[in-house]
Design a protein that fits this description.
The protein folds into two domains: 86 residues, 2-Layer Sandwich (Nucleotidyltransferase, domain 5), CATH 3.30.420.40; 143 residues, ATPase, nucleotide binding domain (Nucleotidyltransferase, domain 5). 39% of the residues lie in helices and 24% in strands.
């Protein structure tokens, strides 16, 4: 069994693979103050909840965009599973050519998503990840990572409205009954869902024009299911794309 871990700014996503099959996945809040022991106990509890024998975990693969937690999760892997993790970063084989001014600036999650999308769907591609930020990764016909774009995610926008506008409430991130809101909550929801959908579609259009091709557009991330149904440019949605990418990177590096 292979345990893969994607540590994001707000959420940490875990997946367990047997061969190429994802048999379980879990999500927990990312907390920089949690210790090695706290994360170890929580993850073991997840495994126990599905009657999984964690002594059979033979490998751990880690992707992290939260530097203080990279070492925490790596130490947790060694302490609780007896496995030295494969950490996505410089020196790891990905098969990906980064056509970027400073390749070290490309987030591990973006690299992992690109690797997964290329292997599963084939280039050219635009990968849109709906996380804390909404990120766009452009991949040409040769499978080269060209770069991309990003802007604040839906959650950040909704929270900013609540915190900075005294009379505006927190709202649930879901589409309202109609585009023209008849109350404050529905008006905010309309702006967030349909406004962000059009921003995403507009940026995909501009990226495609600069790429001079019609790429496949793949959406992933926890909030992808909110926007994708209303998008005219998103063709595919894969909520576990990052987990699949971590598995593929393990295979590239360990020959499985």
């Amino acid at each position: 069994m292979i345990l893969v871990m994607d540590v994001g700014n707000n959420r940490t996503v875990l997946g367990l693979f047997v061969s190429k099959k994802l048999i379980a996945e879990w999500r927990l809040a990312t907390d920089k103050n949690r210790t090695v022991d706290e994360y170890g106990i929580v993850i073991k509890a997840f495994l126990n909840s599905k009657s999984i024998d964690y002594s059979k975990i033979e490998a751990v693969v880690l992707s992290s965009v939260v530097p203080p937690l990279t070492s925490t999760f790596a130490e947790m892997s060694r302490t609780y599973f007896g496995v030295d993790p494969l950490v996505v970063g410089p020196g790891i084989r990905t098969g990906l050519s980064l056509v970027y001014e400073n390749p070290k600036e490309v987030g591990a999650d973006r690299v992992v998503n690109a690797v997964a999308a290329i292997n599963i769907y084939g280039p050219p591609l635009i990968v849109v990840d709906f996380g804390t930020a909404i990120t766009f990764c452009a991949i040409n016909e040769k499978g080269d990572y060209l770069g991309g774009a990003m802007f604040p995610g839906l959650g950040i926008a909704a929270e900013a409205l609540f915190l900075r506008a005294a009379k505006l409430p927190r709202v649930e991130l879901q589409a309202p009954p109609r585009i023209i809101g008849k109350n404050t909550v529905n008006s905010i929801q309309s702006g967030l869902i349909y406004g962000y959908t059009d921003m995403v579609d507009g940026l995909i259009q501009r990226l495609s024009e600069e790429m001079r091709c019609e790429p496949k557009v793949v959406a992933t991330g926890e909030l992808s299911s909110i926007v994708a149904p209303y998008s005219q440019r998103i063709m595919l949605t894969n909520p576990v794309l990052t987990l699949e990418g971590l598995r593929i990177i393990y295979e590239l590096n360990c020959g499985r």
